[in-house]
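*** Fold description ***
***
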Amino acid sequence: MDLPTTEQINIRDYLRVILKRRWAIIAVFAVVVVSVTIYVYTATPIYKATSRLIIDKENPNVMSIQEVMAVDASGTDYYQTQYKIIESRNVARAVIKRLSLDKSEEFVPKPRDTFLANLKHSVQKTAAAFEKAVVALLRTREISSSQALKEHDLDYKLVSAFINRIKVNPISNSRLVDVGFEAKDPVLAAKITNTLAQAYIEQNLDTKLKAVKGAVRWLNNRVVAEREKVEKSEQALLAYKSRHSIVTDFTSDVEKITAQKLAHLNTQIVEAESVRVEAETRYKQALALKQTPDMLDSIPEVLKNELIQQIKSMEVELYKRISELSKKYGQKHPQMVAIQAELQTLQKRKTYEVKRVVNSLNNEYRVVRAKEESLKTALTKQRKESLDLNQKAIEYGVLQREVESARQMYQLLINRFKETSLTEDMKAGNIRILDRAEVPKSPVKPRKQRNILMAVLFGLAGGLGLAFFLEYLDNTIKDPEDIKRYLNIPYLGPVPVIVPNDNPGKDFPPEMVVLNSPKSTASEAYRGIRTNILFSSAEFEPQVIMVTSSGPQEGKTITSSNLAITMAQSGNKVVLLDCDMRRPRVNKLFGISRNRGMTNLLVEKTDLKLTVFNTSIPNLHVIPSGPIPPNPSEILGSKRMEELIEVLRKNFTRIIIDTPPITAVTDAALLGKLSDGVVLVVRANRTVRDMAKTGLEQLTAVGAKLLGVVLNGVSMGRGSYYYYQYYYYYGDEGYQEKKSSRKKKTKSTNVEDAQPQIS
């Protein structure tokens, strides 16, 4: 794959542009340098006085009032603020008022006693009187306000002019700053600078002292308010203690005792609940076994009862005796009956004793439960008393804290009020003058050497910029590179600007340079173009050659005539056809009549021998245009024209056709189809690229074969594209041509400039 080619920058192209536009560069350079030089030598000198200040980071610790007058100077924003304060309008007005600068000629100059100054002053005075009359007529009530507005405008302009002369230059990596002022009078400049520094320091101190005074007033008001607040809070605390019969303060010991009581009651309740549950369990167990007396003996309390145990022992003994007596006696035996009766008595006693034990369990349960309820009641009461005590303690604490807070604030304000009152008369700040301004010895403006040097640089840069800008705006074709870049067709050669010779030929005008100056660069250029045309095609030499241009006055007629001459001089039988039937000129160049010519051949079918004119140049014949017809395009595009070309091919070796511009009319496009090749003439520095492209597109559209482009009217002067190419070989004759031109004081021109009325 082919890589895209990029255009290489050639330094010689830039040099050619500079040489080409040298007069524009010189003009801009001269205007800038001369203007600046006149200014620096006629301007009023300006002097600058400078005073150096030091801005400390913190204020001197005179009193412990840093919180009131503290300055946060740790950041750059503080210094930037101070620089703007120096340039503030308040400081400027203070200096103007102290030095009465509103009456100084430095700021309010007196009118000059010249004609123009007096005329300007009278015009301004008349305009002011007219304005005042109009205002008095239309707005009677607003006269005073208008006058005040004018005074404000004058003050505003004076202050603005003063501020514009202030120069604040901080010194890097330090707390120093240079404050300068520019003025025409060096003494006044030093005086204003010192006054400005002093006014700035005083205003800075006044600002701080105003803040202190404001703080004193504010503290005084707050002290009174805080005193009332302390009294109210103390009265509220006293009333609360009296209402709730509080004798002592609520301390941590009281809270501890209350907590211990609650904890002890909780412990007793837990123990009572345990005892109550145990008693309740025993009682309910005994109550459940009451219906089964035989099971009552399983109750632990019954088992532990000594009386019941004795009864049981006696019952055991009786059962043994009954067992022994039953073996001897029957059931109704008196001893058996007596023992049975005794056994029943013991059982009744046991039953009674068991009931008594159950009743004792019931009584014990009730006592334990009553004790539990009593403890719970006491706990509830204690809790309520604790809550009431806590609530009182909270309210009491709130009131007490309010009293303490009010007392502390009151005491703090009292101390701060005393400190602030002492600082009202303090005259200390963090800004001091390190070096006072001295009267400057030399002006700072204008800097003659620097300004002139800058003018030289800017003038040169502006001239070069203008030159390249004009070159950028120039969309004409100037050199062969433009032909290759924009037209993309073969380049046949250049034709230089033709300078008339001292001894021109008697029979031919100066434009016929091949005859008048056969050794000139122009003649050699035409011979080179002739050679390039003949060898432009590898298959055959073109016989019918049409010469045209994209627009008028580009030199196509002179080019076709000189080409015809060079081809005839090389031994070829050549005929030159003037097919420009709108503005013909070939007949004038060769000094022949155009009463008969192409028009007669194509319309009247005149004999060819009657229209072909011989010239004094061997092998060169000319057919002029003939009378100008009303319809040239129809005549040239007719069948008769094709037949004429075929006849001429048989009788002549070369046929040169001169045609009108291709973009103006269609004649050249019609003849291009009948030619073996077309030569396009382009005027250097005049032919527009788009017009040349349009002409090529029209020729390509009709199928014409393009042999190449002739660049006409190129400059051969020093610095031009062809200077070094032609100077050494043709230098002497070129020098003679230029010298002759200077003697006659004639203007260098190409062929078309000599006869501007033809194309």
About this structure: The chain has three domains: 22-212+432-448, 252-391, 490-754. Residues 1-6, 60-71, 140-144, 726-759 have pLDDT under 50 and may be disordered. Residues 507 and 616 are 9 Å apart (CA to CA). Residues 334-422 form the longest helix (89 residues).
